[in-house]
Amino acid sequence: MACCFSGHRPTPLELHARSLAEEDDCLGVKSMRFPMYTIHSDLLQQMTKIEPHEVLKERGDIVIFDASMGKAVFVSHQWVALHHPDPEFAQMRVLQGAVRHLLGDVGFIPLDPSTEVAVPTARRLPLQAFKTLPLYLWYDYISCPQLEQRNCNEKIEGSDLAKAIESIPSYITQCSFFFALCPVIDSPDESRVLTPARWGQRSWCRLERAVRELSTDDTWILIKSETSLEIVGSVLGFVGGSAGEGEFTVPEDREKFGPVLKQAVMKKLLLCLKSGDLAAYRRHLNLQGVYFRRLGVEPVRNFIPGFEEKSLSHASVAEFFYQNGFTSIRDIDSSGWSPLHYAALRGETELIESLLQLKADPSKRTRRDQPKLGCPPWTSALDLSMLFKHNDAARLLLAARAKLTGGFLPAVHFAAISDNAAGIRLLCSMRCDPLAGDLFGTPAISTAAGYGSMAALEELVFHARSASESGRVPGTSHALFLAMAGGGGSAEMVHRLLELQADVNHQMKRPKIFSQRMLVALKALQHRFGRPTAMSKLCHHWGGITPLMAAMLTVQYEGGAALIAAGARLDLKNDRNWTASTFARDHTLPHFIRDGLLGDVSECQRVTTRALAEAFVEI
What we know:
Elements: H1 12-21, E1 37-40, H2 41-46, H3 53-59, E2 62-64, E3 71-77, H4 90-104, E4 108-109, H5 113-118, E5 125-126, E6 135-139, H6 140-143, H7 160-166, H8 168-174, E7 177-181, E8 185-187, E9 192-194, H9 196-201, H10 203-213, E10 220-223, E11 229-232, H11 254-275, H12 278-286, H13 288-291, H14 315-324, H15 339-346, H16 349-357, H17 381-387, H18 391-399, H19 411-417, H20 421-429, H21 444-450, H22 454-467, H23 476-485, H24 491-499, H25 514-528, H26 534-540, H27 547-553, H28 557-565, H29 580-584, H30 591-597, H31 602-618
Parallel strand pairs: 3-6, 3-7, 7-10
Antiparallel strand pairs: 1-2, 1-6, 4-5, 8-9, 10-11
Helix pairs in contact: 1-11, 11-12, 12-15, 15-16, 15-17, 16-18, 17-18, 17-19, 18-20, 19-20, 19-21, 20-22, 21-22, 21-23, 23-24, 23-27, 24-28, 25-26, 27-28, 28-30, 28-31, 30-31
């Protein structure tokens, strides 16, 4: 940490960080209220049905985990049925296959495509990391008591199950790895289709993810099939939302989330200071308002002790500088961010207004990428305000004439990524082009489709139609492709884009824009010379690829079912002579996709109808 103090007088933040670094233990790890029961990877792979905790415990198949035993994995998943996590063993078969892949194969787990493109410094995970020590897995139905509550509709306070649930944050911090188990599952009894997007909407899944991202190792692994795994190491890699804004099966759970997240944030701030990572400290300190949305928890502002308010003039700036370790409006920290960028994360209008009055540049852009947020270089305060839905702050920046474009992504793309329809409306009121392209020429409507941002898509469509003499929205076929190539492959997205006259059989051609052509060429070369990722494979097969082929490549089977139900051709081939079935051959397919690729579309139609009914009910 010596580099933090050379060349200038240390700030109170730096002095406090130094004092914490010299302490033996300042994190105060809270003990678990219920032991952390896990199952060894070998026993997990021998299972043919999921039995409750008590049965496995009596048989001796689960053990209390200790770090001396090896490495632990926390498995986060959505239950397939109301009273059983996986009655047909569909999810568990995928988990078993994924574990076999991790322990038996060589290579790497690739980054999610968004992070791979936007954040050059992000790193993939070698499979060797799973083989150095024995592997144990925590899975709720196996690891938490179940039978004591069999005849009860509610969790009894003080029960072992309640204690285990309250210990989940502690379990996550003890685990070396975090799996989000999200294969596409058709759940006939529950009248729904489970997808990664559905997992991301669940409040408990969002809480588990947030606690992981606030732990020492903040990356996590998205499991879409036995061999389709991705490292998600950034906000842009899997945009979900705050835990308090998720879906609650038990409304009373909301009251528990606030204290849990607040404790996790406090520990993360201490950890950042103790390790000397001041940029990460600033990031998490100023994102508290985002973490705590709709949880009734106030952010902690006086984390660094000793602040004394000496003047009422710009008092919020003085406090902000003190807590963030800044001394000037023109400071740039080690990550290439200025005070205004961190203020944009916080989103407080009084603070931003004061910084602007002190001549902060509203259009100043970051100098480097930010891997953990997934933000590319040249990101502005307006971009960050759009991404985190601080629209009042964005209004102030726009009034100060912040530029709408000029970076890797225009501001409207950040709003599209986070499904910020109100932000798009605000930008368009300032004459923003709703079809503005990013550095690679991708229009905002395609970005919205790629992230599954339905509200943002509708807002962009409205403004694009208003600006068009014909009333048509250009680029919907490209948007359909990007929805399947990205993470927006839902039946609802397919249905809406086809309504907007997207071509269900659209075949991609060689990019015309130089930057996009270079990206596709470089990623194709990467794939050819032995570093395959989902993104590199997509670029390798770019010429002639259809939305259905892309859906098979990215394992987006709900969207694939909707395309088949809408009449997507199965005989089309890309420039490498691959059909949709060729892309699907290395994966274990759900029955409706398997039948659909063989020409029987009835099950794809049923699944699509169910998914659309669920989406329209939610609206």
